[in-house]
Design a protein that fits this description.
The chain is mainly α. It has a domain of about 120 residues. The protein is about 55% helix and about 5% strand. It contains 27 helices and seven strands. Helix 5 runs parallel beside helix 17, helix 16 crosses helix 17 and helix 18 runs antiparallel to helix 19. The longest helix has about 40 residues. It starts with 10 loop residues before the first helix and ends with a strand.
Length: about 700
Amino acid sequence: MKTKFKGRIDFLLTSIILLSIFLNFYQLTKAGSNTYYTVAVKSMLKSFHAFFYASFDPVGFITVDKPPVALWIQTLSASIFGLSNFSVLLPEALAGVISVWLMYVVVKPKFGRTAALLSSLVLACTPIFVAVVRTNNVDSILILTLLIATWALMKSVDQQKVSWLLVSVILVGIGFNIKMLQAYMVLPAFYLFYFIAVKAKWTKRIGQLTIATVVLAAVSLSWAVIVDSTSKDQRPYIGSSQTNSVLELALGYNGISRLTGDQSRGKAAGNVPQMPPANSQGTNNISGNGEQPSMSPADSQNIQKQTRDGNPSFAGGPRGGKQGGMNGMFGTGTPGAARLFSKELSGQASWLLPLVLFAGIALVVSFRKNRAFTLQHQFAIFWLTWLLPMMVFFSIANFFHQYYLSMMGPAIAALTGIGWTMLWNLYKEKQGWQSWLLPVSVLATSLFEALILFENKNVISQAWIAVPIILGLVFSVLLIVMRQREKTAYSLSIAGMLVLLIFPFYWTLATILDGGNSALPIAGPNSRQSGGMGGGGPMMGARPAWNGDGSMGSGLNRNHGSSMVGAGPNRNGGGSMMESQADAKLISYLKKHYNGETFMLATESTREAYPFMLQTDYAVMAMGGFSGNDPAVTPEKLAKMTKDGEVKYFLISGEGRGNQKVNEWIKANAKEVPSSEWQSSQNTDNTQRTGMNRSMTLYEYKG
């Protein structure tokens, strides 16, 4: 019996998906993970209590700085495959591949197969999208969730059913529980598209959107309300908040503060530890999950002195920009209209923005010619409304990282496919100035890509800068010459789009061939090599060391000391802000003197806790959370905990970090343990070799 298949395999789409699989999964087992979240996943495997609250430690003393949904998925993966780099990275890599496929699914019904294929290919090759997909930062899962929400929104318009609108906002609400207010960046596009595309009275549409808003709020705040309503002594402290509140975390540190840069109450702007010397690119090493740790008064004076002395690491940006604080620390350039086109950010996701501009022009021309506001126009406006607010935000915000730009990836990808379709339709009409927009857009985008290469001439051969200019001129001229031969011109226009993807693809390929991953992924060629297009060897990255069988090994890999790693001109390969591996003698000492306390050790922040948490199955209390500034413990609370036998050992730095009142209580009520009893000479030598003032003192509470 013969079976007749209605559909056929789309080999081009299959090829794009296979390309995405390669880019996302190539040597993924060797990629490093964000230690902050990896430790949390290990803790979340221990109990439902730690799992539900996304606790950094297995006891449930303090949470990480994000809501739990993406970490729940990573924990599920780790429970199936065992805790390893691969298991915590797997969900993100899969999310990236599915997102590429979804771009095709969403774009094809409105603009056809070719536009859908181009959109999928562009997203698959977007450098910062691939860079973040290969980490266990939660952005990839967030993007997938929002793309599924987009698919549901399109169904609500196509079928004129409000039920699909509710599915869409429910998914956005889940996105809120992945990365809080970042998920809401797409809401202007969702609300506007539904309002202009649904065929109903405007009062009915407003009513439906009002209901959707109520549902959105209910889903978004569900976990926060449960947690904030739970007695504070029955749950962990909310990490990176100052009032032990999820809502404060959402609206403050993970919300408005990202725009204003005002982190004065938490991981503050200016709360920067004494930094190691900048590398040749003027960048610094940041530890942990890439956020800013705390700073002592001595550190503050040191930073101010280095700024006055002209150290570019502190003079407002990696290249000594005008703005100080957050934007300089994380290499995102100076706030302003040209920020997305600057050296710091342009290579991450901006390659095709000139083409997007011409797509906008084509949209206006098409509307004026047809005198009709079609569903295609509305669909294009949806993606423009996704992209433009993000461009404004990233142009003016004071506190974000390069990998946040991955949120722009889907919109740029969709508008590239849409833009090509609209520009081609105008081109083949051969009437008026608008028919020249296609060849001009190819040339303009090529010139912009040459500018990006010129900005990064220190990491690639300058000879390559002329390549996009030459290719752009060739294809734009050919499109002009061949405009009377439609079939040939069609092939040339597709080829022109592929040519525009050569250097974004190289930026992406360099990222994965570099072999590294990090808490702060950056896309592009290895900055340690400057003279050719070739990729480099592995960069250094903070990550757990795993045994050959994939199980947890001896903490952080000694050979990968820097936690600020990514591929790119702004990468650096310097040392770590923390010891890459806990002192074996200290662990042995703590194990020998462990008498069943709840916590094996207490540290000032999560960064000092990482190695102990990875190398042992004991709980460590990070008293001040990631930054060291969280008021999760007071002298009174600590007095009760020590009296009850919950903790007796404290590892305190000599830099005045952490909660000073708590540190003073420890010094007054606990006895200093001679370093000869717990600190190996190798640890001391390593501290001297890295040049870091990381003198640590161990205290024991004896009652």
